[in-house]
Amino acid sequence: MSSTSKIGIVIPYWSNIAKTQLIEIARLVEELGYDSIWVPEMWGRDAFSLLTLLALNTKKVKLGTGIVSVFSRTPALLAQTIATLDEISEGRMILGLGTSGPIVIKDWHGLEFEKPLQRTREYVEIIRMILSGERVDYDGEIFKLKNFRLQFTPIRKYIPIYIASLGPKNVQLTGELADGWIPFLVPPEYLQDAKKDLMAVAKAKGRDSDQIMVCPYIPACISRDVDSSKRVVQEHIAYYVGGMGTFYYKMMSRLGFQNEADLIVKAWKRGSKSQAIQGVSDTMLNSIAIVGTKDEGKKKLKEYIQAGADLPILIFPPKSSRDMVEETIRELAPGS
Q1: Which of 34, 66, 75, 146 is the Cys-Cys partner for 123 at CB 3.0 to 4.6 Å?
Q2: Mind listing the domains of the chain with CATH numbers?
Q3: CB atoms within 10 A of CB 263
Q4: Pick from 45, 3, 59, 91: nearest CA to 334
């Protein structure tokens, strides 16, 4: 892996993280030459408030929503917010969008998980229209906007929009519209094949496929305590496969991990979290995550980059300790 390789990180989302810790991590990441910091938004702190904090305490590292759901805010409000943050950060923002999943949208936001693909399409089109500064007249299937224009001039009329997607139709939509693609829990070999499909869609739409960034989220934990690092990543994977509906279960099954996925889901449903974690085999773990020593982590990162990752993004499992996160950031830093 060359010193020019771009790597991003997802800021840790511990429930008890302090403002000072967030700033310290962001400054360390910037100092070590990482390309970007991504702030998730699930049902904890909101992404945009934290991004404002980071924007005011860093100078050059890019900042992205990683990701915000298209069900959480109107497209107009998202456009207003990202344009404002781009101004605050002096042009460093990336807007990462996704649909989240039925459980979160129904049980947390209280909304029906309806027409996620069409909703994503309309969000991208509306946000781009608003940021361009033109008057917005939009007649969509879901949204109908009329005769408004953003009240200030964005410092960039084109802020990159990345889409988190895995399903075939969603990946196709990403190829049609997005500036970047954010898959999660995928091995390098999947990435290589899927990237070809993504680029083919982009070319068919007359787009410059080289402009689409491929940015896989990769669970990562480098630690001298290899067994502990493996377990926190296994738990992270088990949570998504067993506890976040059927989407990741189906994804793991398609990737050849049907037995593991079945075991994880069955154990999770009967409340046996420890058995669900044990269901994440070493083969599965080493295929879709970065664990172990620095050399092992560097080797895996190189595999992702060779498979077509333009920007591997490290995501730290919630049970990672502060020391694990700092060690991972330092050991996997570009050029380290």
Answers
A1: 75
A2: 8-221+290-331 (3.20.20.30)
A3: 20
A4: 3
